[in-house]
Amino acid sequence: MTCQLTFLPVGNADSIVIQTDNSLVVVDLGNLNVLEEWLEKHEISKIDRIYITHAHGDHFPSLIRLANFISTWNSKISIGKIHLPYKVIEIARKKILANTANSKNGSLNLALQRIKEWSDSRAVKLSPIVRDGEEYSEGLIKIEALHPSQFYVENHLAISGSKLNEISIVLQISYGDFSALLLADIEGAGLTDLLRFLQNSSDSTIFKTNIVKIPHHGAYPPNGNELKDLLALVDAEIAILSVGSKNPYGHVEPALFNALIELQNNNTQRLNKFICTEVTRTCIHSKLERSSMGKSGLSTPQKCAGEIVIITNNLGEWQLKTEMTNHSAKIASLSHAACDGRVDIS
Ligand SMILES: [Zn+2]
Ligand SMILES: [Zn+2]
Ligand SMILES: [Zn+2]
To answer: Phi-psi category of 287—alpha, beta or left, where left has phi over 0 and alpha has psi -120 to 50?
Structure first.
């Protein structure tokens, strides 16, 4: 019996498949083409759950594309439940009402209608998810949300509707003694809230994790110290970065690798490896070169590890497989390979 986590190479986006002998869960739909190819290649017959962590396009296809996805795949495989981003249906409904002249209204209306029909017929069930809400459990696997709480998400949307990363759903995956923490795009006040929750828990060691997915594709938030505290608290053995070579945000930010290297050099921490799906400018360019690039990325995508697969047993003994069989040679060929701790920060 094993559990497998696959971080699909979707560029500056997320799409993660969690598989056991009898269940399959997808976290985020950052690039539907890559996911669809994967589903076909592995002859998947059912998806038990889809979690969409928040409503940004690199995690959530539009409602129109989601409706098309359900309609294509629900005829081939069974789809159980989809946890949509908070209030995404209500927000779409309001948009339609506010822009009656918008030409996209017709297709959005149709998508909403189709989604409602699936939901009514229970072919696909839809529901939002919050901390202390519904958890997924099937055999040894258990998935629960650590963020946001119902109170946080309602209070947050009321005062600051645009900062969607802060209400990203953060998931803890457990499989026997193995645990993974998927931090979606958590940052800012949401990161603070998550950290407080973990710190205030009567036993924060239950949040120790084998694997951590670094939030927000290698951004380094203004409250980076809280990110460091969070990473130290969860004490992962490996940090996984889902990043895109061409991203125009200057990711992966060197400060993030600094934080990881600090943890790696700390003898009380278990972190001994970080790994990225794609090569970013930080791996190729010196500090001086980067300073003239603004925030722009590389002109062509390059895989670093490519698809990243973690296979674990229920004792927390896991192994890593990368799509790029020459991953070590690739890292060696890069002048400033970030995942090898060689970023130029001079
Ligand atoms: Zn986001
Ligand atoms: Zn994102
Ligand atoms: Zn790398």
So the answer is: alpha
Q: Which pLDDT tens digit goes with each residue over 265-324? A: 999 999 999 999 999 999 999 999 999 999 999 999 999 999 999 999 999 999 999 999
Ligand 3 centroid from CA 6, angstroms: 16
pTM, full prediction = 0.96
- How remote is the CA of residue 29 from the centroid of ligand 3, in Å? 22
Distance 69 CA to ligand 3 centre (A): 31
Q: Where are the beta strands (DSSP E) in 97-185?
A: 125-126, 136-138, 141-147, 170-175, 178-182
Which residues keep their CB under 5 angstroms from ion ligand 3? 276, 304, 339
Upstream peptide bond of 148 is cis (omega within 30 degrees of 0)? yes
Domain at 135, CATH number: 3.60.15.10
Whole-number Å distance between alpha carbons of 306 and 313: 23
Cα–Cα distance for residue pair 255/217, rounded to 1 Å: 13
In a domain, 268, yes or no: yes
Q: What's the total number of domains in the chain?
A: 1
Distance 2 CA to ligand 1 centre (A): 31
Residue 104: inside a domain, yes or no? yes
Cα 203 to averaged position of ligand 2 atoms, centre (Å): 30
Q: Is residue 346 part of a domain?
A: no
**Count of Cβ atoms closer than 10 Å to residue 320 Cβ:** 15
Q: Which domain holds residue 297?
A: 3-340
Question: What per-residue confidence (pLDDT) applies to 123?
Answer: 86
pLDDT tens sequence across 126-141: 988 999 999 999 999 9
Alpha carbon of 215 to ligand 1 centroid (Å): 9
